[in-house]
Design brief:
alpha/beta, globular, 5 helices
């Protein structure tokens, strides 16, 4: 039998936490993100810093339901939350005055998911 979806128990647990937070806080954003992170790894979203720079304003909170890659530059301080980051992406985000956090940290920081932009 062919297995579809994630086998990483950490991703599965995170998706459950996001759905639970979405129900408790009446925040549809967490339901959407939980569906996106449950995609198989080969279909998971990868976003370059150049795309984040293009679609964000200074001080925005950006959510990437996948991996942030270091291609391009970031010229403004933004908070970027993602499932994972490349090492260079973290360095470039911090060099621009921003912050790279995990999805769990964003969920604790902003349980209602207000003023968060999803970039996919």
């Amino acid at each position: 039998m062919k297995r579809t979806g994630p086998t990483n128990y950490l991703v599965i647990r995170l998706a459950r936490e996001l759905k639970k937070a979405g129900n408790q806080n009446n925040a549809k954003i967490w339901h959407k993100v939980s569906k996106l992170i449950l995609e198989p790894r080969r279909k998971r979203i990868e976003v370059n810093l150049s795309k984040i720079n293009r679609y964000s304003e200074e001080g925005d909170t950006i959510l990437v339901p996948g991996k942030v890659l270091a291609a391009g530059n970031l010229s403004k301080p933004v908070v970027v939350a993602a499932l994972s980051f490349s090492k260079m992406a973290i360095l470039k985000i911090k060099a621009a005055g921003g912050e790279a956090i995990t999805l769990e940290q964003l969920l604790k920081k902003n349980p209602k998911g207000s003023k968060v932009k999803i970039i996919a």
